[in-house]
Design a protein that fits this description.
This is Ferredoxin. The protein is of the alpha+beta class. 24% of the residues lie in helices and 19% in strands. A hairpin with a 5-residue loop joins β2 and β3 (33-35). Bound molecules: iron/sulfur cluster.
Length: 63
């Protein structure tokens, strides 16, 4: 399983992550990305990979 985080200094709140992987990401009241889970469920890993590639700010990190 992998751990995912959002770099709040880079995130500009486009919200694409929450659209692509809503089981893992949400947006706060200002539209900034939030991570909902400590560990990425195996079924969501492909969506998270897509979110990483799609984030315009390169703000999502997986390890
Ligand atoms: S897609 Fe990237 S910039 Fe947009 S809310 Fe998600 S982490 Fe932030």
């Amino acid at each position: 399983m992998s751990h995912v985080s959002i770099d709040g200094a880079k995130c500009q709140g486009h919200g694409r992550c929450a659209l692509i992987a809503p089981e893992v990401f949400d947006v706060d009241d200002l539209g900034m990305g939030l991570v909902l889970v400590d560990e990425v469920p195996p079924a969501a890993e492909a969506d998270v990979d897509e979110a990483v590639l799609t984030c315009p700010e390169n703000a999502i990190h997986v390890r």
